[in-house]
Write a sequence for this structure.
């Protein structure tokens, strides 16, 4: 009950700028958690990517390879690259197509990370801005009343510091999630690059043999 009362009091005592910063932080939190849950779902679907690559190279027939790979490629990252292995084109053309397919796959892997990075780097400062503004309003109000006593200042200043805590509460989950998913992305991007490189080498060797 006390927490609810304090939050209501904090909101009722705030001005338009305070309300704006709270709404911005709230939107940042909602968006970042939405991305976090989306990325967690993607993370679970990408766990079999390495196994899919092993299955692909284990099969020699191109049609069998594609059908065997598909169940493991739930995000459709490998299939566009694998399909290029069946095309009869010269090496430079194949290399360009593989580079494009890998670039598209990497863009898909990076989905949502820019937002997480933005929230992680800016939410704390938004909260700090709200705190500074709240302290400024408190000091000017107390000075205007002519009652510059610590008892009249400490309560409103403490409420203003809530904005800093709010900013940290928004920024830290986004920061941890960004670091985790970025490291995970590096592993998958390395796998994609190696897969495209192996396909290019395989097709080049096959052309030379012919």
């Amino acid at each position: 009950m006390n927490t609810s009362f304090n939050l209501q009091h904090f909101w009722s005592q705030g001005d338009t700028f305070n309300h704006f910063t709270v709404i911005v932080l709230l939107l940042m939190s909602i968006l970042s958690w939405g991305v976090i849950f989306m990325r967690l779902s993607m993370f679970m679907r990408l766990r079999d990517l390495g196994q899919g690559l092993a299955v692909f190279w284990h099969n020699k027939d191109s049609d069998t390879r594609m059908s065997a790979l598909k169940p493991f490629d739930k995000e459709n990252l490998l299939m566009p690259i694998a399909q290029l292995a069946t095309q009869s084109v010269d090496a430079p053309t194949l290399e360009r197509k593989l580079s494009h397919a890998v670039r598209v796959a990497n863009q898909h892997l990076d989905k949502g990370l820019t937002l997480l990075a933005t929230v992680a780097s800016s939410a704390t400062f938004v909260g700090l801005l709200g705190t500074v503004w709240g302290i400024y309003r408190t000091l000017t109000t107390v000075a205007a009343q002519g009652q510059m006593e610590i008892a009249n200042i400490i309560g409103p200043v403490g409420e203003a510091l809530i904005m800093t805590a709010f900013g940290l509460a928004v920024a830290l989950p986004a920061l941890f999630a960004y670091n985790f998913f970025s490291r995970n992305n590096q592993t998958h991007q390395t796998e994609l690059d190696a897969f495209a490189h192996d396909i290019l080498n395989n097709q080049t060797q096959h052309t030379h043999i012919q």
